[in-house]
Design a protein that fits this description.
Layout: E1 2-3, E2 7-14, E3 24-31, H1 45-49, E4 64-71, E5 77-88, H2 91-109, E6 128-137, H3 142-158, H4 164-173, E7 175-176, E8 183-186, E9 194-197, H5 210-218, H6 220-231, E10 235-240, H7 243-257, E11 265-267, E12 284-289, E13 302-306, E14 311-313, H8 327-339, H9 360-378, E15 386-390, E16 396-399, H10 401-408, H11 414-421, H12 423-432, E17 436-437, H13 441-448, H14 450-456, H15 460-478, H16 510-526, E18 537-538, H17 560-575, H18 578-591, H19 595-607, E19 614-616, H20 618-633, H21 643-651, E20 654-659, E21 662-665, H22 679-698, H23 710-715, H24 726-735, H25 746-756, H26 762-791, H27 799-805, H28 811-822, H29 845-864, H30 868-897, E22 918-927, E23 948-955, E24 958-965, E25 975-980, E26 984-993, E27 1000-1008, E28 1013-1018, H31 1024-1038, H32 1047-1050, H33 1071-1091, H34 1124-1127, H35 1135-1146, H36 1148-1156, E29 1173-1176, E30 1192-1195, H37 1200-1207, E31 1217-1221, E32 1228-1232, H38 1237-1243, H39 1256-1273, H40 1312-1321, E33 1326-1328, H41 1343-1346, E34 1375-1380, E35 1395-1400, H42 1405-1419, H43 1430-1440, H44 1442-1461, E36 1465-1469, ...
Parallel strand pairs: 10-12, 10-13, 11-12, 19-20, 32-36, 33-37, 34-35, 34-36
Antiparallel strand pairs: 1-7, 2-3, 2-6, 4-5, 5-6, 8-9, 13-14, 15-16, 17-18, 20-21, 22-23, 22-28, 23-24, 24-25, 26-27, 27-28, 29-30, 31-32, 38-39, 38-44, 39-40, 40-41, 42-43, 43-44
Helix pairs in contact: 3-4, 4-16, 5-7, 5-9, 8-9, 9-15, 10-24, 17-18, 17-19, 18-20, 19-20, 19-21, 19-24, 21-24, 22-25, 22-26, 26-29, 26-30, 28-29, 29-30, 36-46, 37-39, 38-39, 42-43, 44-45, 44-48, 45-46, 45-48, 48-49, 56-58
């Protein structure tokens, strides 16, 4: 029973003491005046009566009513019902207010009249003051309070004849029951009647309609987020203009939280004066009047719910975790069904006429029922995780949070984790955990209805039915008597507040009220207390827990097969069948990833423990420990599946004898797991064990089990299906143990004991308390021992290193934060958590362990009620326990060191290249799987090759791993992964688990730009110093201080510092001396050029090669202009000069310039002026531009001395020079660096006469303009071009149509047919792709947008006509300058000039670098993807933007190709002219000129454009220490990728194979060859790399040049040759460049683990396969079939293509016949030539026209036909001929002529050499080489003219194929020919490739040679 009301208070308006304008509340009277003993008067009531502040009003407001809630210091809530009405203010009150108001007005208005409100009724100055009647109660009967206060007000206003004192006295003395569903009628003595119903159970909250209203105001989603916010302890603030609404909303939210109680600040109505409470740091639920919304704006972490606006605002910094799925979505849909029943019927064709909607009160209960069900689903089975720590004198209960989360499968769930850690749940456990208490609806629901709820999940109607049932019960709880008698309470009349009240509210007689109260109190004391006995029962536990969502556990499902494997392996171990166990072990280790298998392991191991001990031999011990480690490695620190808990008793049971008296237990080998250093784990374990023992205390002895059943004891397994800790539950489920009837759980026992407790005698009670306390105490000692076992490392001296390596750091750092949290900050952290074991002196291991154990003991003993004496005793014991254990461990450690080490696999030594030396011998490592899943047996199939166990070697050239798979079932495969040291791009330390022992080890992850990744974990035998040494050595080799330190130089080099230079032969200065002089001169020249202000002139030829004479040091005096004659090296040149010039002339550039006819150093004394370009030696000293080659092509009209000035306008002095000329259109391609800003300005200045004071810059600009003019005028078609046009108006489809040419009509692509038609009409040039996708929408509408810039380049034509839709107009600019958009910004073109700018957006080198990094990570990710899928790879590939860069390069290149093809010249002038410029220029030449698509041509292209023109290979490849910071930028690799894309689209146009590109891609970064080192020819000369000594024939030493290596290899194997090579004549390629047409280069993704990268040919050749042999037993020969594994075997080697196979077979057969095998190239050429013989009479050949006619002209593919011939079975390989069926006559003639050379194959002679005619001839060497006498042999059989050094020389020096000879004609002597010979003895042989000049001894022999060659030709 309780009082209905505790206090009645009358509060009125009073002036503020500090004289501010606002008033304040004054308590006029309160009854009773004395405080009740059990309930003191709450302070601050006057603030809550008027939450917005006390103010006077100009009008009389209607009375208001609301209920405020105050919480006292004991968390008791007091309900203050406030009824406020207004009375005319008394003069004093009014005066105060007016005064203040006036003062305020004066401040503003300077004394204007006071006017508070114009609409004041009654007298103009009349104000009204509020007065409040307050009822304070601990009961929440808002309606009764409203009626009671209303009655008092009515009596006053209506002047009823009833004493107010009586009414108030009766109100204060009214006693009603608290709960139990009774009905009570009360009357206050004014003819009124009220019925009060008390709820059935006190614990269920009363909500009336508040929940339904909350949902109406805010909606489902908002209320759900508020619900989650309140549960996860966020701050919630409600805003509304209505106080009643605020208190209802707060009440509703609290009702939803049931069965949890909100235990933080709860203020439904917060007064304005207390608004600063909102900035409190603790969570709260508060309501504030919406008038104060502005004050809430700056609250950063408060969730604001606006009830009037229906919004919930969550700040950015606040994350509200949602309910776990599927509960979130289920709850949402059920709520919508309850709130909107019509939703289900909205789509029905015939909706039912009416639906019955619930009343608001009923809907309120339905909504609560939804949340009640939600909690039942969330907390289902919570009682299984309760630990009964103590039963007497008071129950102490703990909740095993980890086990609960693990069982429910919600370990990762943020929401539930926060709820379980919250205060509300702690209260829930202490209140509802008690086993013997009254139960309510929630207990029933969670115990009995869970199965029903799970069954109903997918049936909405059944769910609704259940909700309605629950709602009925909730409704009944609030309204137990539905047919309630009507209230009868008088109310004031309508508008009574506006009538003038007869008088103010009277002062009441305190004495009279007090007398009534005293009377009632006296009467109560006499009456016996009417106590309704609570019905207490044992709380039902309900069914065991299940996961909230039955997740399929994916790969490691709980399959019976896996468990069987685990059981078998363990039984093999204990039966001593070690080999069998070893076979199964990998499968077991894999299976142990699954939870069920881990529990199964613990359970099986337990079966082998007798009497708490199991002694094993060494091998068994190792197996058991490995399996335990594997189990524990996946345990989180929470151990939510109880695996660590299950293993804990076992690690102290399994042991092995090391020596007499020394035993090693398993715990010393399983310490490296984070779970052991987690205090929460130990607490849960401790409480679980205490529960088991407490339960055993109270069980009858008859119920006690066999004492040997330790398993059940230690794990509380057999508790009648109520395990203690979480682990036991898992095990129970696995074992399916039937619960025995007589076994009762700990909670059942506790319930029984609590029931009996009051009946026991005092002594008995005391005895039980003591027993329990000593049980807890003994367990604490037991756990102190256990913890010391698992926390003290075996070798305490090394523990610092050990722990740090394990990633746990010091125990302090691992556990402090956790302990401190759990003890609410009571323990100060003694060490910085970051420090690890830094401070060896102060932080010893023993001390750390003692402190850890002491904290644990303090916490659990305090919570379990252990006496302080016992606790002190424990603190004394702990250091002794630890010390004793350390002493035991010392002996164990000493003995364990003596054990023989486990046999590790033998280290496999890698094969090394000649000259490669080992720097560091093998360090044992494990190679771990990375993201390339094929290696780990992923999507590619095949077994898991990784992780592999082996060693890593560091050599001067590579980092190599060799080893074998760690999984013995994979087999004895050798796994090799290596990459060149120079290719290393990133090295990072990692900490990883070794695959075998599952220990945490140091590791290293090395990533290379050749797309290899070594992710290694060092074996434990590798010390950290060895690992560090490896890193240092690797770093030293990767970044040598000087380029001479790279492998290419150190490899048997003559340049190694310290060796004496070799003596040079006496044949004039050697090339090396020459190089040095050259460089010295260049340095001097360059130095002087900038120091002195004199005009610089390049030195003449005579000064070349030696320093200038002393007297010329200051100025190099040379003629102002070089005469043409000085350009020609005449016979007067000194030998050294001639050699220098020769060496320059022999460079790739010069050879190519001759081929292109761009300029020759002709033999005539004066140069023909008609030639437009000349070779200028102006840069031969590298004085103008260091990064350019020595000889450059410049316009004929430009003098050398002008070039110096021109070069100043360009970056790095790289002025425009010609690098290629189109053979057909004669347009030239030029390259240069980007313009300096002054150069840009100069280029577009008006052409006015230079002013007298012109600066040097201006003159440079002028020179530059002249230079460009010279380039334009040297082009034949544009010398007299009238007018020009722009490149701006591309049609959007120009890429689709063919470029207009004199022969092809202009088409625009309005439809795909037109496109194909246009393509057919244009015989030269082809669009490439294997797929015939239309190109119409390919690119944007103008050059700019086409090249990724969006601005129009120029407006339409001047006459206003729209731009021509054709791609280029008939009149084009003579020269297009492709420049950087950023650089050419704001430049206006000059209409008079004949060049036009094409600004494009280019990417910089740093973007290439960044993109490459991402590409590397996409192709070779460092770690396994969470869910490996092709999509994730493609996504990361797209993010890298690599293909977009390739697309841009191809796009720009195709644009330039089209411009050149249409006759305009192009100058590519981007960045510094050595990165993107080089890429574009090389691609353009490759696409335009078929020569560059041959092996020889591609080499020439790379040598010319990349090496001679100074691409900075060393800088971009970061070859030395200086480049380390800039990192690897793969500009050249990107170019190769572009070539690869073109190769894919035109497979028949390239002589080289795709492997050749990969080979170059690998070796440009490997530093194996000197070719791709250094940044320019100048630097190569400086190091003496360019000019090799001619005199010495180098032996079979290692190749220095990659080209030399390729040549050697090409002679031996066709790996670089493309069998599909069948080029079309003069073919211009136009590849598709859209990203959709590009493919990822397999160079990035493929790998061969069998032999490492296949690009070092010597290493890739494995041992030959043994031939088939018959078995000795006479059986059939063993099959030669073999399994080819993806990612392991090299497929091209395992299964070569048909042609390679046949060539190999041919060589093998020739060798068997004893003949020297023919070179593969000769065989292949012969086969191809034979194929081209058209229509032979015997019909064995197939006319090539038949083969090709069916293939469309622009899409040819390779055809290989196998044909049966009439005679035997011959193999005829038919390949496309060079021409298609419609080829020209000359082409056919040429084909026929080529084929003659192969006739000899019909009559092979046994003689290997055929010499038809032979003799000595002089032969002129290639360009600029001297005449030499050679021994020539004419071979009529093979149709060859071979030459040798002398008659007896066996090695042929060269071959002229007579099939290629076009004519033999008389010749003329050239410079350097033998002097004494007659002019008629000279003759020339002209071939398709070049002209050979010969000279015989006399005229007769010359005639004989000519006749012999002619006859040989006519025979053919």
């Amino acid at each position: 029973m309780a009082r209905l009301a505790d206090y009645f208070v009358l509060v009125a308006f009073g002036p503020h003491p500090r004289g501010s304008g606002e008033g304040q509340g004054q308590i006029l009277q309160r009854f009773p005046e004395k405080d009740w003993e059990d309930n003191p008067f709450p302070q601050g009531i006057e603030l809550f009566c008027q939450p917005s502040g006390w103010q006077l009003c100009p009008e009389r407001n209607p009375p208001t009513f609301f209920v405020a809630v105050l919480t006292d210091i004991n968390s008791e809530r007091h309900y203050c019902a406030c009824l406020t009405f207004w009375e005319p203010a008394e003069p004093t009150q009014q005066a105060v207010c007016t005064e203040d108001a006036a003062e305020r007005e004066e401040d503003v208005d300077e004394g204007g009249p006071v006017r508070l409100s114009p609409a004041a009724p009654g007298p103009p100055g009349q104000l009204f003051a509020p007065k409040t009647l307050v009822l304070v109660s601990r009961l929440d009967h808002a309606e009764v309070f409203r009626n009671s206060l209303g009655l008092i007000y009515t009596i006053h206003v209506e002047g009823l004849n009833v004493g107010l004192e009586n009414v108030i006295g009766n109100l204060l003395t009214c006693i009603i029951p608290l709960a139990g569903g009774s009905q009570r009628t009360i009357s206050l003595g004014a003819g009124d009647r009220q019925v009060i119903q008390t709820p059935l159970t006190d614990s269920l909250p009363i909500s009336r309609c508040s929940v339904a209203l909350l949902f109406r105001q805010l909606g489902i989603t908002n209320v759900l987020s508020l619900f989650c916010a309140a549960l996860t302890e966020h701050k919630v603030l409600f805003l509304s203009r209505s106080y009643q609404r605020l208190s209802d909303a707060c009440r509703g939210l609290l009702a939803l939280l049931f069965p949890l109680r909100y235990s933080f600040t709860y203020v439904p109505i917060l007064p304005a004066q207390l608004l600063e409470v909102l900035s409190t740091p603790t969570p709260f639920i508060i309501g504030v009047n919406a008038a104060f919304q502005a004050e809430t704006q700056e609250l950063l972490d408060v969730i604001i719910a606006d009830l009037d606006g229906g919004t919930v605002t969550v700040p950015e910094c606040v994350h509200i975790p949602p309910l776990p799925e599927p509960l979130q979505s289920q709850t949402h849909s059920v709520l919508s069904m309850v709130l909107d029943p019509d939703l289900e019927l909205a789509d029905l064709a015939f909706p039912p006429p009416t639906t019955s909607t619930s009343s608001l009160k009923m809907q309120d209960k339905e909504l609560r029922a939804v949340f009640l069900r939600l909690f039942a689903q969330l907390l289902q089975g919570y009682r299984w995780c309760l630990h009964m720590v103590r039963i007497h004198p008071e129950p102490v209960i703990r909740f095993h949070k980890a086990a609960f989360l693990g069982q429910r499968g919600l370990v990762e769930d943020d929401f539930l984790m926060k709820v379980l850690e919250g205060m509300a749940f702690a209260g829930f456990v202490s209140e509802r955990g008690i086993p013997y208490r009254p139960t309510d609806l929630f207990d029933e629901l969670v115990a009995h209805e869970v199965a029903r709820m799970r069954a109903d999940e997918n049936h909405p109607q059944r769910v609704l039915r259940h909700i309605k049932e629950l709602a009925e019960q909730l409704y009944k709880n609030e309204n137990p008597y539905p047919a309630v008698a009507m209230h009868k309470v008088q109310r004031p009349g309508e508008a009574s507040h506006l009538r003038r009240a007869p008088r103010p509210f009277p002062r009441l007689d305190e004495g009279m009220v007090q007398w009534i109260v005293d009377q009632a109190t006296a009467k109560m004391q006499g009456a016996p207390p009417a106590v309704k006995a609570e019905r207490r029962t044992t709380v039902p536990s309900g069914p065991p827990m299940t996961a909230i969502l039955e997740r399929s556990s994916g790969l490691h499902g709980n399959s019976a097969r896996r468990l069987e494997v685990v059981r078998n392996c363990i039984s093999y171990v204990f039966e001593g069948k070690m080999l069998e166990a070893k076979k199964l072990l990998p499968a077991v280790l894999r299976a142990l990833k699954g939870r069920a298998a881990r529990c199964c392991l613990a359970q099986e191991l337990h079966l082998h423990v007798q009497q708490n001990r199991a002694v094993l031999d060494h091998q068994q011990f190792d197996f058991v420990v490995r399996m335990m480690n594997c189990c524990l490695q996946d345990c989180t620190s929470l151990d939510e599946h109880g695996v660590a808990a299950a293993l804990l008793p076992l690690v102290t049971a399994f042991c092995r004898k090391l020596s007499p008296g020394v035993t090693q237990f398993a715990y010393s080998c399983v310490q490296e797991h984070v779970v052991w250093s987690t205090p929460q784990f130990w607490e849960a374990m401790f409480y679980g064990d205490v529960q088991t023992h407490i339960r055993a205390l109270y069980l009858e002895p008859a119920e006690d089990r066999d004492p040997s059943q330790v398993w059940g004891d230690s794990l509380a397994l057999g508790d009648g299906g109520r395990p203690g800790p979480g682990s036991s539950l898992v095990l129970r489920q696995v074992r399916e143990v039937p619960a025995q009837e007589d076994e009762r759980s700990a909670l059942d026992v506790a319930s029984e004991q609590r029931r009996l407790w009051p009946t026991l005698s005092r002594e008995k009670q005391q005895e039980l308390v003591q027993k329990e306390e000593s049980t807890v105490f003994s367990q604490a000692i037991h756990y102190a021992n256990r913890m010391s076992y698992l926390l003290l490392p075996l070798d305490s001296s090394k523990s610092r290193l050990l722990r740090e390596r394990a990633g746990l750091g010091d125990l302090e750092s691992a556990s402090n934060s956790l302990v401190t949290n759990s003890m609410a900050g009571s323990v100060a952290e003694s060490y910085d958590t970051e420090s690890g074991f830094e401070d060896a002196e102060t932080c010893d291991v023993a001390g750390a362990v003692v402190r850890f154990i002491n904290r644990f003991v303090d916490k659990v003993c305090t919570e379990s009620g252990v006496t302080s004496d016992h606790l002190k005793g424990l603190h004394v014991m702990v250091p002794d326990i630890v010390q004793m254990h350390i002493e035991t461990l010392e002996a164990v450690h000493r003995e364990s060191k003596r054990l023989p080490p486990i046999q590790k696999p033998k280290l496999l030594r890698p094969r090394l290249l000649p000259g490669e030396e080992c720097v560091l011998d093998g360090l044992r490592v494990y190679l771990l799987p990375d993201g390339r899943e094929e290696g780990a047996g992923g999507s590619g199939g095949g077994p898991a090759l990784l992780p592999a166990e082996g060693a890593v070697f560091l050599t001067t050239y590579r980092v190599i791993f060799t080893g074998m798979p760690a999984d013995p079932l994979v087999g004895e495969q050798v796994v090799v992964r290596s990459f060149p040291v120079a290719a290393l791009t990133k090295e990072k330390r990692i900490s990883v688990q070794t695959p075998v022992d599952q220990l945490l080890q140091d590791g290293l992850q090395l990533r290379s730009c050749t797309f290899q990744l070594l992710k290694m974990a060092f074996d434990e035998e590798v010390g950290s110093d060895s690992a560090e040494l490896f890193r240092k050595q690797l770093h030293k080799l990767r970044y040598p201080p000087d380029i001479r330190g790279t492998f290419a130089f150190t490899l048997g080099s003559a340049h190694t510092p310290g060796r004496p230079p070799r003596a040079t032969k006496d044949k004039g200065p050697s090339f090396r001396t020459l190089s040095r002089n050259l460089v010295k001169n260049a340095k001097k020249t360059i130095g002087r050029q900038y120091i002195t202000r004199k005009k610089y002139n390049p030195p003449s030829w005579e000064h070349r090669g030696q320093p200038p004479p002393e007297d010329q040091e200051d100025e190099i005096s040379v003629s102002e202009e070089l005469e043409p004659s000085t350009l020609t090296p005449s016979s007067a040149l000194k030998p050294s000069d001639r050699m220098t010039m020769n060496s320059l002339v022999e460079r790739a550039c010069c050879r190519d310039y001759q081929r292109l006819g761009l300029g020759t150093l002709s033999s005539s004394l004066s140069r023909a002026k008609s030639e437009p370009f000349r070779i200028s030696p102006v840069n031969r000293m590298y004085a103008i531009c260091r990064s350019y080659p020595g000889l450059l092509i410049v316009p004929q009209s430009v003098q050398d001395n002008a070039l110096q000035r021109v070069s100043r306008c360009y970056r790095q002095n790289r002025f425009p020079v010609v690098c290629w000329r189109s053979g057909r259109s004669k347009a030239v391609l030029l390259r240069s660096g980007g313009l300096h800003s002054k150069g840009v300005v100069g280029l577009f200045k008006a052409q006015n006469a230079p002013s007298p004071g012109q600066s040097q810059a201006d003159s440079s600009s002028l020179e530059q303009e002249k230079y460009l003019q010279a380039v334009v005028s040297s082009m034949p078609r544009f010398t007299d071009a009238s007018g020009r046009n722009t490149l701006s108006g591309f049609s959007s489809a120009h890429m689709g149509s063919h470029v207009p040419s004199p022969r092809a009509r202009v088409t625009t692509l309005s439809n795909p047919m037109a496109a194909s038609a246009s393509r057919r009409t244009a015989p030269r040039g082809k669009w490439g792709s294997v797929r015939a996708s239309g190109r119409s929408g390919g690119l944007g509408a103008d050059v700019g947008s086409r090249l990724a810039s969006r601005d129009m380049l120029s407006p339409p034509q001047a006459n206003g006509a729209p731009p021509d839709p054709g791609f280029l107009r008939p009149h084009r600019a003579a020269l297009y300058i492709i420049g950087d958009k950023a650089q050419l910004k704001g430049v206006r073109p000059d209409p008079l000039q004949q060049w036009e700018l094409v600004p494009i957006e280019v990417f910089e080198a740093r973007q290439v670098k960044a993109s490459f990094k991402k590409l590397l990570k996409a192709c070779v990710p460092g770690c396994l993807a969470a869910e490996p899928s092709p999509a994730s790879f493609l996504r990361s590939l797209e993010d890298s933007e690599w293909l977009i860069q390739i697309h841009r390069l191809l796009q720009v290149s195709v644009l330039v190709v089209e411009l050149l093809d249409s006759g305009s010249s192009v100058l590519v002038s981007l960045e510094d002219g050595w990165d993107i410029t080089t890429q574009v220029v090389s691609l353009v030449q490759l696409l335009s000129d078929p020569f560059y698509r041959t092996l020889e041509g591609f080499r020439l292209l790379v040598e010319k454009e990349w090496l001679s023109f100074g691409h900075r290979f060393s800088h971009r490849g970061a070859h030395t220490l200086a480049g380390q910071s800039s990192g690897f930028t793969p500009v050249f690799l990107q170019f190769l990728d572009c070539v690869h894309q073109v190769h894919l689209q035109f497979p028949m146009e390239f002589e080289f194979s795709p492997f050749y590109l990969k080979f170059l891609g690998y070796h440009h970064a490997s530093c194996r060859f000197q070719t791709f080192l250094l940044d320019s020819d100048y630097e190569r000369i400086e190091l003496g790399l360019l000019y090799e000594e001619k005199g010495e024939r180098r032996g079979q030493q290692a190749c220095r040049s990659v080209w030399e290596y390729v040549d050697r290899l090409s002679k031996r194997t066709p790996m670089f040759h493309n069998y599909m090579y069948a080029p079309e004549d003069a073919e211009v390629l136009r590849p598709y460049s859209n990203v959709s047409n590009l493919k990822v280069w397999d160079f990035y993704t493929e790998e061969t683990l069998a032999e490492g990268p296949p690009y070092d040919w010597e290493l890739a050749q494995g041992p030959p396969e043994p031939p088939e042999e018959e078995r000795p037993d006479g059986g059939a020969p063993q099959s030669r079939r073999r399994v080819v594994w993806p990612c392991y075997d090299s497929r091209p080697r395992a299964q070569p293509d048909a042609i390679s196979r046949l060539l190999e077979e041919l060589q093998r057969l020739e060798t068997e016949l004893g003949r020297p095998p023919e070179r593969w190239k000769d065989t292949w050429d012969r086969v191809k030539a034979a194929q081209r013989l058209e229509g032979r009479p015997d019909g064995r050949g197939i006319p090539s026209s038949l083969l090709v006619s069916s293939v469309p002209h622009h899409r040819r593919s390779l055809g290989v036909y196998l044909q049966e011939g009439p005679v035997g079975s011959t193999l005829s390989l038919s390949l496309d001929s060079d021409q298609s069926s419609g080829s020209t006559a000359s082409g056919s003639r040429q084909a026929a002529r080529r084929s003659t050379s192969t006739l000899y194959s019909q009559f092979q002679t046994a003689e290997s050499e055929n010499r038809s005619y032979e003799g000595t001839l002089y032969k002129k060497g290639a360009f600029m080489k001297p005449w030499k006498a050679r021994w020539f042999v004419l071979d009529k059989t093979k149709h060859q003219l071979r030459y040798y050094d002398h008659r007896i020389d066996t090695e042929c020096k060269g071959v002229i194929d007579l099939a290629e000879v076009e004519a033999v004609a008389p010749g003329t002597p050239t410079m350097g020919a033998p002097k004494t010979v007659d002019e008629k003895a000279f003759f020339d042989v002209k071939t398709t490739r070049r002209v050979y000049n010969f000279c015989a001894q006399d005229v007769l022999s010359a005639q004989q040679w000519v006749d012999q060659i002619q006859s040989c030709l006519s025979d053919a």
